[in-house]
Request: fold
Amino acid sequence: MRQRYLDIASTPSVLAARQRYGGDRWAGGAEDDPGGLGEAERRFIAARDGFYLASVSETGWPYVQFRGGPAGFLRVLDERRLGYADFRGNRQYITAGNVAADDRVSLFLMDYAQRHRLKIFGRLRMVDARDDPALAERLAVPGYAAKIERAALITVEAFDWNCPQHITPRLTEAELEVVLAPVQDAMARLKAENDRLRRLLQAAGTPPPQGAG
Reply:
C-alpha cells in the first residue's frame, strides 16, 4: 500500500515541491501491496505502547495528539482495520470533534530504539462505549485502570515505512532493562567474587587490600 500512500499524499503542491527539490526521482517506482496490513505491520503495531494521531479541524487547523497505553492496546482487527479503546483524558475532545466533521486521520507509529517508523492514512470513527459495550470490551486492555469512553475504529487507506536516517534512538524503561541486564549480571558476578575473596582473606587472617569494599 506504499504506492497508495504516495498517491494520497501527492497533491499538486506536493508534486511541485518534489519537482523543485528533486524528490520526484526518489518517489518513483514504489512497490504496492494491495493486500493491506501484512505480518510485519501486525507485529510492529502489536509491540507499540503509543502512537501519534493527527486530525484536521473544520477551520483547517491540524491537531496532533499522542495516544498511549500498554503495548498492544492498538489492535489489528483485520488487514484493513485497527481499533483501540479511547480512554478518558483531558476532556478537550478535539480529535473526537475533528473526526465527526472530517474522518481522515494520519498515524505515526515509532520504534525509537530500532529507528523504525510506520505511517498510516486512515478514516477514524468513534463509537460511544455506551452504544456498543461489546466492542468496547473487545478493545479493553486487561488490568489497565482507565475508563473507556469510546471505541475508536480506523479503516486503513494506506501505509508506508519511513526512512530511519534522522530518527534519534531512544529506549523505554523496559528496553533499558534488556540492554542493561548483561551489565547488571556481570556486576553481580563481580560482587559475588569480591565477597568470596574477602572471606578467604579473613579466614587466612589477612586484612583486605586498602580501599577494598
